[in-house]
């Protein structure tokens, strides 16, 4: 029995007590003692014992049914179920994010150079894709394409993990009483997840940009100390407003389309990795087209000496200087980078969720077999 107390009921035994009415008393389980009760001058002993609640031997039962070493070797998938689910999901998002950023770092560096070239004092309004690729190789060699990748990887590990994990949490919060999640709920969950991860890791994003585009900076620590000394701590959050505005619709649209497309497919196709990859490509493409101008605004506001103080200054300022296409400078390398990057992250995360479910079923099956044997 469970609870703070146990409700004890008894009735007089015929011939031992003349009182036919029932008496109900509270018995404190913590004392665990026999109680002597007197009713109407007659007395009798009430011998009380607690029925097992099924948990007294739970540790022994778990030890008996827990998979043995040889069983885990034979069924390695069950090992995954031994780790906390939340930790597994968090780690999967981190690893997938780091891998995707490292593989696409050259295109990201080219994109950043194209977005900010007009502010570097070169006298040029912009730089083309091939020119940016050639310029990086000429000035810095092959390693130049991965310049700034370390702080990007350091940033993307918590960023990707927090974003994907937070999305799952927000979806649980926003589900209705029937457990369903509306399209609006998915959009809100994606927007909140994007803003949460952006706010947590934004200083690392600013450091990565400065390291990638400003000459003379060798390490992330040098950039950080120079920013603190010359511009103050507020410089680490320059452009945060447009970043939050830009990331919220991007992640909302990206994750929402991904979920809805997968849900609309026949069940036999939903769990396939290639399905996740294809739906992730479509969702990332639509989201990127919609939200890229805000990313350009954010990057130019992050630059040292930027003439723009707000999104409302930057948007017309960039259009006036570079034309409407200036808002989409670097879009091609960004698309080439973000599409596989987003696809890798979402596919890996979706695959791990499927593996977690399968591992839990495998562990339960082994434990049931051990219980019956």
Automatic annotation (TrEMBL):
Subcellular location: Membrane; Plastid, Chloroplast envelope
Coiled-coil regions listed in the entry: none
SUPFAM superfamilies tied to this protein: Mitochondrial carrier
Gene3D superfamilies, A to Z: Mitochondrial carrier domain (1.50.40.10)
Cellular component GO terms held in the UniProt record: chloroplast envelope; membrane
Membrane spanning residue stretches: 234-255, 275-294
Topology in membrane: Multi-pass membrane protein
InterPro entries listed in its UniProt record: MCP, MCP_dom_sf, MCP_transmembrane
Keywords, in A-Z order: Chloroplast, Membrane, Plastid, Repeat, Transit peptide, Transmembrane, Transmembrane helix, Transport
Keyword Repeat in annotation: yes
Keyword Repeat applies: yes
Solcar repeats: 84-173, 181-264, 271-355
Pfam families: Mito_carr
GO process annotations (BP): organic anion transport; organophosphate ester transport; transmembrane transport
Family: Belongs to the mitochondrial carrier (TC 2.A.29) family.
Name listed for the protein in its UniProt record: Thylakoid ADP,ATP carrier protein, chloroplastic-like isoform X1
Organism, scientific name: Dioscorea cayennensis subsp. rotundata
Taxonomic placement: Eukaryota, Viridiplantae, Streptophyta, Embryophyta, Tracheophyta
